[in-house]
Amino acid sequence: MEFRSLSVILLLSSLVQNLHAQAHYFKPVLTVWPDWPQIFSGETITLRCSFPKPSVTHWTFYWYRESTRLHRSDDNLYILKHIKVDQSSKYYCYISNKQSQRESYWSNAVTLTVTERPKASLTLVPTGQMFSGENVTLRCDIQGHTGTEWRYSWYKDGDSNRPVHSSDVKREYSFSVVEFDSGKYTCRGERRSDSQRSEISDAVILIVSALPRATLTVDPRWSPVFTGESVTLKCEIQSHSNWRYQWYKGSSGTAVSQSQINTFTIRSAADQDQDQFWCRGERNYRPSSSQYSNRVNLSVEAETPKPELTSSHKGAALIGNPVVLYCKLDQSAGWKFYWSKHTQSPENETKTETHSYTISSVSVSDGGQYWCRAERGTPVYYTHYSDALWINVTGVSPPVSLMVSPGGTQHFITDSLSLNCEGQSHSAGWRVRRYTHSEKVSDCSSGWGSVTRSTCNISSLSTSHTGVYWCESESGESSNPVNITVTNGDVILDSPVHPVTEGDPLTLRCLYHDPKPSNLTAEFYKNGSLLQTQTTGEMTIRTVSKSDEGLYHCKHPEKGESPQSWISVRAAESAVGLVGAVVGVSFAVLFIILLTLLWCYRIKKGHKLHTNQMSEQKQRESGAEDTQLGHAAVQAGEDIPEWDSQSECIYSNLHSGKATDVGAGSMEIIYAEVEVKMKKNSKTKHEKVCVSADTVYSELKQNRETKGL
């Protein structure tokens, strides 16, 4: 009995052990993925319930957090998305066989520890505005963690997929910035142990500006300079202050000079100063330097320049006309000009700001020898004197005048212009020339006009046609110059191209480019001062005097104002009526005497031949006297001049007749009947006598024939 009881006990013990082993064999295993010891909030965690049964289709899975059932499913996976800190706990799975409710099992417990995800913090060193070439450091720190457990990445402008830089060790990213590096920067860390990432940092803004720009200028600005001239280099930096200035020359990268002021002066330029210069600024604060400046080339010439003096006239200048002298100097710019007459005397020089000197109305006293020279800079640098130029002044008009069509000194662009050399006899061999600032002296045939004999035609004017025009012969004679101004404005002043004679009227008109205004009211100015306001658009000076000379222009309230034009006034020619009358009376008396002698000869036709010879001798002596007066012979049948105030000469005919002397034979005697007339003219002051070097008078001649001795 006891044996049987023992056997039962052993059997039961074996069954219990088998059941316990079987239960352990079927117990599910709960695992976590990813298997991190510390989980950051926001991560996704997967719980997996595994057991050795060959199939899971007959099982139902239950998921618990502590004693709270979370979920039921036929799947052995349970996913926790965006896990939070308050989800930290122990988790289980429980499985139950769908076919047998008595077959069910609990898994092991897993503990999830969830903490807040650490946030990266990005620091910019130094802070504030950065300048190109400076070094910047971006420092990434993970809050609450040591730097050694993380890898670091930096991002620009929100692109978190492509880091601009990564480091397995260093949490600082340093680099030299340029303007392109400007932007918003962030960083984050990735833990080396489990590859968990921190939150991305807040953005910091990096602003990179170009270094302040240095600008180098040269005073004076012209090039080249000449040996001995003073040159000042100026280095200007527009922003910031407290700069020190460094000066560089040639190919050297080392500064040749440093100063606290921004100028560098070469007091007396020499050959060795000819080179390339530039500058840069430095200071003790950010930005610590400027950019290098632009480079300037300093050119130095050793030879002192000599100007060329020319005149608007190639021949003698006519009294009352303007004469313009030009001091031509091709070397660089910045010159002021001095003009000397008779002697090279600095005490008596006339100074002008431009290279031209105008004698508005030349007189005999303006004739003589002229020089020019130029100066510039501080201290003053002088050129050599030019060669001497002689100005000859005459009261005789040139044989050719330049006629302008349409008339006037001012013209609109795109208008046409005709310039014609008109002579007192003929104008063959004369050409139209001009002087402009751009082309200097040139002929019409050089391309700015078309030539037809002595006429120059310009089909379409431009402002480059503004200049001084004249006619010039092959021998170098020249007409009086004419100023032509071409404007692209809407208003011109219609004024004469040639000087106006004292006592004559002068009308100035304000002309307009299309469309013409309905209101023609215009203001007229002389030398910048208002003279008149006329509703008709024209102004008349009834009797011009020398005081009316000056610069004139007109102004319209809507269209604007015209360019200025110089109006010259020449003196009226002296009255010569009295001289003409005296010469005329003398001429009449002379011929009356001759006629008397001839009459006496005919009365005494019977006298002896020697008496006739004596009479003839007296007549020849009278003729000699005439010759001494500068008169030449006139042949029978020609006309003798009749004088009038318009310089027109009318001649009466010489007549011939025969006288017969029985004793002495017959001879043909030529005699003159002279009628001297004077035409009346109310304008006595303009009367002229027809007496000049070209006026000729007759010498009485006899032709004798002797018959029947």
Automatic annotation (TrEMBL):
InterPro entries registered for this protein in UniProt: Ig-like_dom (IPR007110), Ig-like_dom_sf (IPR036179), Ig-like_fold (IPR013783), Ig_Fc_receptor (IPR050488), Ig_sub (IPR003599), Ig_sub2 (IPR003598)
Keyword Signal: yes
Top-level taxonomic group: Eukaryota
UniProt name for this protein: Ig-like domain-containing protein
Keyword Repeat: no
GO BP term (any one): cell surface receptor signaling pathway
Keywords: Disulfide bond, Membrane, Signal, Transmembrane, Transmembrane helix
Residues of the Ig-like domain: 28-113, 118-201, 212-299, 307-375, 481-554
GO terms assigned for molecular function: transmembrane signaling receptor activity
Signal peptide (UniProt feature, chain positions): 1-21
PANTHER family linked to this entry: FC RECEPTOR-LIKE PROTEIN 4 (PTHR11481:SF64), IMMUNOGLOBULIN FC RECEPTOR (PTHR11481)
PROSITE patterns xref list: IG_LIKE
CDD domains in alphabetical order: Ig
Organism lineage: Eukaryota, Metazoa, Chordata, Craniata, Vertebrata
Name of one Pfam family that matches: Ig_2
Transmembrane segments: 575-601
GO cellular component: external side of plasma membrane
